[in-house]
């Protein structure tokens, strides 16, 4: 996982994921053979993508792992196990079996083991009373797109647009380049040969992550913490720097915090500007996805309250507040005094957001009506670049 050759890391991902799915499958089958209902949702893929980019998984393994006291969510948004650290993949078996807690459980922690209290209630494990994260913030330093912020913020779209480039997020963009290209030479100008074959490999073999450096550099966990504590300089030299100094293409949306981060922090890496792949397909989905694509940098230093009153097949009434780098979305409610109110058909607003329709045309034709400070629409758009 720590190799600068990311093919080695991705092979380990694939193999560990397959093994996890097989363990969960055997467990579910065994339970069923004993008359107990059980199901093992995929560890990762396949997803149910009918409503993409909204939730496509059956169960969130990370949430289950935390509830089962297997670890705590780290700054990098991966679960950190007390013993194995970040070097884990997670699987879940859902069952109607009644689980009884152990009379006493040993809860390991870095530096030894302590007796933990018995759980309370059916199947409830003893609590993990410490956070395995050592707060080194190496995940912050290593992320090529700055998805992990020192203050705990997380730029979801930054991670998604780069790390998943060769499959989920990038594939749609790849297809659009195919459709829009005038000829093979135009296509080659848009998409390099290495990108084309990398996309083919990821689709034909298994998904290949572009980074996952946050997991690679994490020193947490009993089995991996020792060398870091004894010699931090060696950890930085042998683990972190080969990844941060790696020459590679980094993908980010134009005008995003990620693009600015690459240009400022990793000038030796090649920045390629791409279209956002988080494109909601419904008006309600749009507002549910706003927090995923929100950019904090263009939202700093000002405050505004937006009311959206969208009509049509799927009407939406929502209040969006942007306040000095923070976002709050209240769906199905128009609350407070707005600085601007937007009224139009919901499908039209989706077309405007996706740049299929011009907002100027919509205003001139009377299809889009606004009251308040219209200049706030430009500020709004800057916080959600496409």
Describe the structure.
With 386 residues, the chain is an alpha+beta fold. It has 3 domains: 6-132, no CATH class; 139-217 and 247-274, no CATH class; 283-383, Nonspecific Lipid-transfer Protein, Chain A (2-Layer Sandwich). The protein contains 15 helices and 13 strands. It has a 5-stranded mixed sheet with strand order 11-10-9-12-13. The protein is globular, with a radius of gyration of 23 Å.
Attribute tags:
386 residues; Nonspecific Lipid-transfer Protein, Chain A; two-stranded antiparallel ribbon; 13 strands; 39% helix; globular
N-to-C order of helices and strands: HEHEEEEEHHHHHHHHEHEHEEEEHHEH
| General form | globular
The biggest sheet amounts to: 5 strands, mixed
Count of DSSP-assigned helices: 15
Q: What separation lies between the terminal Cα atoms?
A: 32 Å
The tally of structural domains comes to 3
Rg from alpha-carbon coordinates: 23 Å
| Poorly predicted runs of 5 or more residues | 104-118
User: Fraction of residues in helices?
Assistant: 25-40%
Structural class: alpha+beta
* Mean pLDDT value: 90
| Spatial arrangement of strands, main beta sheet | 11-10-9-12-13
Percent strand = 15-25%
Tally of DSSP β-strands: 13
């Amino acid at each position: 996982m720590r190799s600068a050759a990311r093919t080695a890391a991705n092979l380990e991902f694939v193999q560990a994921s397959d093994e996890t799915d097989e363990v969960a499958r055997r467990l579910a089958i065994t339970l069923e053979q004993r008359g107990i209902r059980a199901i093992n949702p995929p560890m990762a893929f396949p997803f149910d993508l009918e409503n993409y980019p909204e939730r496509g998984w059956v169960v969130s393994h990370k949430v289950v792992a935390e509830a089962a006291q297997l670890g705590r969510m780290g700054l990098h948004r991966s679960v950190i196990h007390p013993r194995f650290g970040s070097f884990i993949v997670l699987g879940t078996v859902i069952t109607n079996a009644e689980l009884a807690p152990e009379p006493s459980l040993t809860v390991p922690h870095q530096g030894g083991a302590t007796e933990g209290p018995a759980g309370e209630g059916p199947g409830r494990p003893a609590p993990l009373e410490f956070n395995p994260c050592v707060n080194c913030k190496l995940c912050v330093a290593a992320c090529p797109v700055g998805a992990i912020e020192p203050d705990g913020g997380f730029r979801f779209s930054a991670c998604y647009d780069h790390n998943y480039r060769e499959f989920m997020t990038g594939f749609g963009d790849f297809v659009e380049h195919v459709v829009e290209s005038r000829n093979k030479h135009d296509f080659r100008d848009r998409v390099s040969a290495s990108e084309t074959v990398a996309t083919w490999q990821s689709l034909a073999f298994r998904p290949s992550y572009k980074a996952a450096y946050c997991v690679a550099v994490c020193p947490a966990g009993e089995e991996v913490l020792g060398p870091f504590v004894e010699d931090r300089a060696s950890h930085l030299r042998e683990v972190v720097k080969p990844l941060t100094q790696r020459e590679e293409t980094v993908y980010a949306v134009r005008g995003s915090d990620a693009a600015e981060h690459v240009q400022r922090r990793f000038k030796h890496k090649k920045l390629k500007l791409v279209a956002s792949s988080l494109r909601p397909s419904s008006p309600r989905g749009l507002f549910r996805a706003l927090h995923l694509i929100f950019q904090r940098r263009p939202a700093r230093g000002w405050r505004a309250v937006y009311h959206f009153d969208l009509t049509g097949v799927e009407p939406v009434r929502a209040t969006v507040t942007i306040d000095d780098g923070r976002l709050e979305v209240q769906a199905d409610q128009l609350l407070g005094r707005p600085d601007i109110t937007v009224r139009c058909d919901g499908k039209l607003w989706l077309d405007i957001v996706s740049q299929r329709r011009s907002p100027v045309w919509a205003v001139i034709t009377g299809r889009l009506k606004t009251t308040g400070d219209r200049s706030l629409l430009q500020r709004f758009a800057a916080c959600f670049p496409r």
